[in-house]
Amino acid sequence: MAQISFEDVCKTYEGGHSALHGLNLDIVDGEFMVLVGPSGCGKSTALRMIAGLEDITGGTLRINGQVANDLAPRDRDIAMVFQSYALYPHLTVADNIAFGLRVRNVKREIIEKKVRETAALLELTDYLDRKPARLSGGQRQRVAMGRALVRSPHAFLMDEPLSNLDARLRGQMRAEIAKLQRMSAVTTVYVTHDQVEAMTMGHRVAVMNKGTLQQLDTPRRLYDRPVNLFVASFIGSPPINFLEGTIAAKDGKPVVQLGAFTLSLGAIGERAEIVPGRKVIVGIRPEALKRSGDTGGVGTISARTAFVEDLGATLLVHLDVQGATMIHSTVIEEEKDLMSVRPRLRSMIDSGHPVTTGDMLTFAVDPLAIHIFDAERGMAL
Questions:
Q1: 76 Cβ partners below 8 Å, 6+ apart?
Q2: What gap in Å lies between CA 184 and CA 176, rounded to an integer?
Q3: Which of 209, 204, 201 minimizes the C-alpha distance to 231?
Q4: How far apart are CA 168 and CA 162, in angstroms?
Q5: Which of 24, 31, 64, 371 is the 20 to 30 A CA-CA neighbour of 77?
Q6: Which residues are registered as beta bridge partners of 362?
Q7: CA atoms 69, 99, 140, 1: torsion sign
Q8: Do 197 and 34 form a contact (C-beta atoms < 8 A)?
Q9: Are 47 and 19 in contact (CB under 8 A)?
Q10: CA 99, 102, 106, 112 torsion-angle sign
Q11: How confident is the prediction along the chain (381 residues), in pLDDT tens digits per residue?
Q12: How do the domains of the chain map onto residue ranges?
């Protein structure tokens, strides 16, 4: 088993591009840690540093307390599962799984026993004589995992292992990988850009952006208590709504004014940073907008339906808001085409309440479901 620690770890490439800025991260023994973030955020660089495939230009990496900055990959006892599976096409499933043991000159009878046990665990027993070309994508991914699992390494490293699978297989493999990790209790570091994978698999999730760790927490706390605009916008599907607001007072109680709409703050208003006149950004998740028969009252927002996505059990309703200013998610701040499109309010509602384009809808907003961020720094208040 392995405990892995990053202590002010930096990575700067030739030409001056900086991929990691002082990363501090402790991965405890037996933990399933997920590194998540958009492309170029530094998550794969951090994973490759653990494997010894990427040099460290600053700081210290420790594995089980030992400084590993200059430790050769073969001396780290770490197994890696790649996005491309990296199977040997001329070898059978059994030989692919056994490959790492054979190069270590493990005795033949031990190899055969371990291969049988691993194949049974991964439900590959009936495919041991097949070659990769005769396997489905999900089966190939299980073979790649079996090749890592059979070695009983100190840690597993997984770099976007499900990105080549279709949506149905991804869901199935998420559950299988999480189950295998629980059974083996091997420290696992999993890299993905998919926040659904991160939220459903990780014991803890490290959200990264532009080479910097934004927040490290359990999936539930990332969703309920994001520390800044980036985390709030990256975690959650569909993405959170952001609106410009100003803290005010009504009947002696703090409220937030969103243009023509006024929302109660409840217990949030008791926080020291919530002072009248302060400019804020209000985050409201689509599922927190509940249809209401009231119109124009405190705690409601009204908007006109632009279009509806029917997702089966729920409807994702896109709405145009008049009288309030919406802003784009920080996740798409560099997507120029998207930035030119006016942001719309999104709401998730039960499909049993049909909605059509042009309908005027009113939503009640629970004060406990509101996220308040400082307008200048983007940090949660």
A1: 50, 51, 52, 63, 68, 154
A2: 12
A3: 209
A4: 11
A5: 24
A6: 302
A7: negative
A8: yes
A9: no
A10: positive
A11: 689 999 999 999 888 889 999 999 999 999 999 999 998 899 999 999 999 999 999 999 999 999 999 999 988 989 888 777 788 999 999 999 999 888 888 899 999 999 998 888 888 999 999 999 999 888 888 898 888 888 878 899 999 888 877 777 788 888 888 888 888 888 999 999 988 899 999 999 999 999 999 999 999 999 999 999 999 999 998 999 999 999 998 888 889 999 999 999 888 878 878 899 999 999 999 999 999 877 667 899 999 999 999 999 999 999 999 989 999 876 655 555 555 567 899 999 998 888 999 999 999 999 989 999 999 999 999
A12: 4-234, 241-374
The residues with which 280 forms a beta bridge, in sequence order, are 245, 374
Range 241-374 classified under CATH 2.40.50.140? yes
Tokens of 352: 């049993």
DSSP assignments along 45-82, one per residue: HHHHHHHTSS--SEEEEEETTEE-TT--GGGS-EEEE-
Distance CA 137, CA 143 (A): 10
Q: Which helix (H) or strand (E) holds 141?
A: helix 137-149
Structure tokens at 190: 């999993």
Helix (H, G, I), strand (E, B) or coil at 21: strand
Tell me the three state secondary structure of residue 293.
Answer: coil
Q: Which CATH superfamily is domain 4-234 in?
A: P-loop containing nucleotide triphosphate hydrolases (3.40.50.300)
Give CA 239 to chain center in angstroms.
13
Instruction: Kindly state the DSSP code that residue 228 receives in the 8-state scheme.
Output: B
